[in-house]
Amino acid sequence: MPATRTLPTAARLVAALSLGALGWFASDLVRPLMPEGTAFGWFNYVNAVLGLLCGWIVIGSRAGRGMVDALANGLTGVLALIIWAFFLQSLNLMLKQSMENRYDGPAEAIIGIFDNAVDYAQYLIDPMLIGVLLIGGMLCGVLAEAASRRWS
């Protein structure tokens, strides 16, 4: 791997900050969609950090290939953010459930992660949230591309 692919760039910074902000904003949109009484704890913070990481790694590393690719990179970054957020939030719930002795063994607990993710997904099928994620992801890709062109 060339050394330039691992160095910090303006495109990586812009992608990380913009996708982190999108992760925070989307987390605020998720709150009213979940059942009443849901304890969110560090929900926004976790999703914002995941956005920072996905922006830096997924979108920022692919910036500089053109505007069409920037849109695809943004969508890829949002998809990575969604997958990681589902996984971590489901893992967190599984750990809480395992402390309540809901699972008979480790295999059942691992399956519980995916069951929890499916349960979460049913709550999050909302046109507003999906639109914000799609348009926001493409905007993150375009911003990273613009930063790549401007400061490279």
Automatic annotation (TrEMBL):
> Record's InterPro entries?
TrgA (IPR047784)
Q: Where does the sequence pass through the membrane?
A: 42-59, 71-91, 128-147
Keywords, in A-Z order: Membrane, Transmembrane, Transmembrane helix
Instruction: Provide the protein name.
Output: Tellurium resistance protein
| Keyword Transmembrane helix (UniProt) | yes
Q: Per the UniProt entry, what species is this protein from, by scientific name?
A: Roseovarius nanhaiticus
